[in-house]
Amino acid sequence: MKTIPESIASGALILIGLFMLLVALADYRALREARRLIEEGTLAWGLVTEIRRSELRSNDEFSYEFKAAGRIYGKHRIEVGGANLGEFVAGQRIAVWYDQANPGRSITAPERARLEELPSRIFFPLSGLAFLAFGIVRAALRSRR
Questions:
Q1: How far is CA 1 from the centre of its chain?
Q2: Disulfide check for 10: which of 40, 79, 130, 139 has CB 3.0–4.6 Å away?
Q3: How far is residue 12's CA from residue 85's CA, in Å, rounded to a whole number?
Q4: This prediction's pTM
Q5: For residue 61, what are the domain limits?
Q6: Could you tell me if 20 and 128 are in contact, meaning their C-beta atoms sit under 8 angstroms apart?
Q7: Tens-of-pLDDT digits for all 145 residues of the chain?
Q8: Burial of 61 (0-12, 13-18, 19+ CB in 10 A)
Q9: What is the 3-state secondary structure (H, E, C) of 127-145?
Q10: How many CB atoms lie within 10 A of CB 83?
Q11: If DSSP codes are grouped into helix, strand and coil, which group holds residue 28?
């Protein structure tokens, strides 16, 4: 007979796996949208309005604004990491691709580079599948006892 903690452990592993797969799916959809915007969107030149460097370079953030259809759009405090942000400084011009039908949907090269990183593309899907498979196998083996 299986105990409650064993059932909870298997269920927790399955839930963690499903959560990681949902994160991977969200990242995939964001990357697909970013690629679409860069291929089909309208190019505008924006302005980097803020750079926030952190002690952990992987947490660097930036903000930008750009003009489209007579209005100013932008994003604020987007975490892209130091490697993707490079040597950008506040006040520097930055290429922004946006959707003409909805200029609030925009992307820059540092944002896309963050989405292209291996953790987003490989770690979450593989880890999610591993947790899910381990949880299912564990639950199946426990139910046979």
A1: 42
A2: 139
A3: 37
A4: 0.77
A5: 4-143
A6: yes
A7: 455 676 788 889 999 999 999 999 998 999 999 999 999 999 999 999 999 888 876 788 999 999 998 999 999 999 887 788 888 899 999 999 999 999 999 999 999 988 888 777 888 899 999 999 999 998 888 777 6
A8: middle
A9: HHHHHHHHHHHHHHHHHCC
A10: 13
A11: helix
In terms of Cα–Cα distance, which of 27, 3, 19 is closest to 130?
19
Written as six digits, the tokens of 41 are 């969107």
Q: Are 78 and 119 in contact (CB under 8 A)?
A: no
Q: Which helix (H) or strand (E) holds 44?
A: strand 42-52
3-state secondary structure 82-123: HHHHCCCCCCCEEEEEEECCEEEEEEEHHHHHHHHCHHHHHH
Supply 28's token pair. 């995939």
